[in-house]
Amino acid sequence: MKRYLWTLLGAALLLALTYVIPPFQNYQLATVAAYLCATAGLTVLTGQNGQLSLGHGALMATGAYTVALMQNAIGNLPLSLLAGVVVTTAAGAVIGLAAARLRGPYLAGVTLAVAVVVPGITTMFDDVLGGDQGLTFYLAPPPFGYDFPFERWQAWIALAAALLTVLLLGNLAAGRYGREFRAVRDDEIAARLCGIHLARTQILAFVVSAAAAGLGGGVLAVLAQSVSPGAFSLTLSLFLVMAIVVGGLGSLAGAVWGAILLVALPDLTTRVTEVFALPTGLAQRLEGNLPLAIFGITLIVVMILAPGGLQGLFLRIVKRGR
User: Fold this and answer.
1) pTM, two decimal places
2) Rg (the chain; Cα; Å)
């Protein structure tokens, strides 16, 4: 009951926030919410079940392309997002079957291959998936009238998806399956002796995580009203892993910090290049590589100063303040 009340309170505060911030910040808030779906799912998989995935960017792409195809076919947003989740869940089940047999670097290698192969599929079937140009689709205007701010409507869609994801994953982590996830992560032999089916538990964790990533990818497609392979590259998968580590591995609150960083750091990079008035060529080269470098430096600094991530640091500050 307490978790539902906190979710309602958070929804009310975020709803009020969308009325006071400008349209661009509403769009950034919506992007944070979309990434939160993916980081929360990856937190369950990696932080709570101990499976490393380097392919969640590809799972987000699966959800995004499904939403784009469904929007062009039927134009019903709830059904399109639901289809994105279903298709990505099925893909996650297939990858999870392989993941349940693999450990450590072998598992990372398989998911890395997924991250590389999926964008290639979009160019292979360019007559359906649009190739490098991707797909665009129409998003109906808000049902509150044409004068209702479109960015606020997008923020509401993304925040609803993120809050639902965090609530469901929070309930899952607090229940029996969450305890089994952590038992398998901590000691597989002890978990097996306690009667936990290892393969089933690991597949379930992968399926749940994939569903959340598919929803996040679908919401990202809704925000851009388009989808292309460049938006879901291997770099995105690396960003997602670094985000949950910097935020606080194993904590859904840490997933929130990670999602914020995924939006804030590229924006910070853009502002830095603008302040120093760099030559155009150098600024273009830094635009793609500097966010990854800053994220890596942030990861090193946070791991040295706060091994529990930003959420662990936040809890320490709150504890000292009491």
Assistant:
1) 0.91
2) 20
